[in-house]
Amino acid sequence: MQLRNGEHGYGALTKALHWLTVTAVVAQFAVGWSMEADDAAFDREKDRIDALEDAHEVRFEAEIDRLEEELDAREDNYVADEASGLFGGDGFTDGLSLPEWHVLLGLSIILLALMRVLWRRAGGLPPWAAHLSAGERRLEATLEKALLTMLFVVPATGLILIAAGERWLPLHVATQVLFLAVISIHVGLVLRHTVVRRNRHLARML
């Protein structure tokens, strides 16, 4: 297998960067969804405190206030505190938490995206697959640029969320939704040619 792209198709380095990126993105979404489960646990704990408050409003009022303040502080600072632990080196000695993995994967995705852009400029691209129509080639070119852009944008909005607070959460979620939409179109096009038309389109990246 040749290292560089050429008439033969994609080279070994392009393929390696592609599948490393796929792995990192899948892991990132898995960690993100696990963090959502943790948020649900926070909500359940709040519901428990509310139930306790309703049942023993007067007797346990001071204790309930303390628990609510502690829980709110934990929720507000959860991601930021964990990320600061990662940058401070604590995560590597105590084991990485989900938010720390989330940050680390985000930084890895940005690095992979940068490497892909630089290698794309240095090594060029192979010729289009002969079975792609002119319209499909234009679509694929647009999708490739959109995917590369989102590999920078989604992690960047996550870092902004950590630095600037929860008000940036809608932007981060919106970029994730857009990213998933672009991925879905890209995967759909690949499967259309690989499974339906059986022209081994996926094999070009294997």
Automatic annotation (TrEMBL):
<keyword id="KW-0408">Iron</keyword>
<dbReference type="GO" id="GO:0022904">
    <property type="term" value="P:respiratory electron transport chain"/>
</dbReference>
<dbReference type="GO" id="GO:0009055">
    <property type="term" value="F:electron transfer activity"/>
</dbReference>
<dbReference type="InterPro" id="IPR052168">
    <property type="entry name" value="Cytochrome_b561_oxidase"/>
</dbReference>
<keyword id="KW-0349">Heme</keyword>
<feature type="transmembrane region" description="Helical">
    <location>
        <begin position="12"/>
        <end position="33"/>
    </location>
</feature>
<feature type="coiled-coil region">
    <location>
        <begin position="57"/>
        <end position="84"/>
    </location>
</feature>
<feature type="domain" description="Cytochrome b561 bacterial/Ni-hydrogenase">
    <location>
        <begin position="10"/>
        <end position="206"/>
    </location>
</feature>
<protein>
    <recommendedName>
        <fullName>Cytochrome b561 bacterial/Ni-hydrogenase domain-containing protein</fullName>
    </recommendedName>
</protein>
<dbReference type="InterPro" id="IPR011577">
    <property type="entry name" value="Cyt_b561_bac/Ni-Hgenase"/>
</dbReference>
<comment type="similarity">
    <text>Belongs to the cytochrome b561 family.</text>
</comment>
<dbReference type="Pfam" id="PF01292">
    <property type="entry name" value="Ni_hydr_CYTB"/>
</dbReference>
<dbReference type="InterPro" id="IPR016174">
    <property type="entry name" value="Di-haem_cyt_TM"/>
</dbReference>
<dbReference type="GO" id="GO:0046872">
    <property type="term" value="F:metal ion binding"/>
</dbReference>
<keyword id="KW-1003">Cell membrane</keyword>
<keyword id="KW-0479">Metal-binding</keyword>
<keyword id="KW-1133">Transmembrane helix</keyword>
<keyword id="KW-0249">Electron transport</keyword>
<keyword id="KW-0472">Membrane</keyword>
<keyword id="KW-0813">Transport</keyword>
<dbReference type="GO" id="GO:0005886">
    <property type="term" value="C:plasma membrane"/>
</dbReference>
<feature type="transmembrane region" description="Helical">
    <location>
        <begin position="171"/>
        <end position="191"/>
    </location>
</feature>
<feature type="transmembrane region" description="Helical">
    <location>
        <begin position="101"/>
        <end position="119"/>
    </location>
</feature>
<feature type="transmembrane region" description="Helical">
    <location>
        <begin position="146"/>
        <end position="165"/>
    </location>
</feature>
<dbReference type="GO" id="GO:0020037">
    <property type="term" value="F:heme binding"/>
</dbReference>
<keyword id="KW-0175">Coiled coil</keyword>
<keyword id="KW-0812">Transmembrane</keyword>
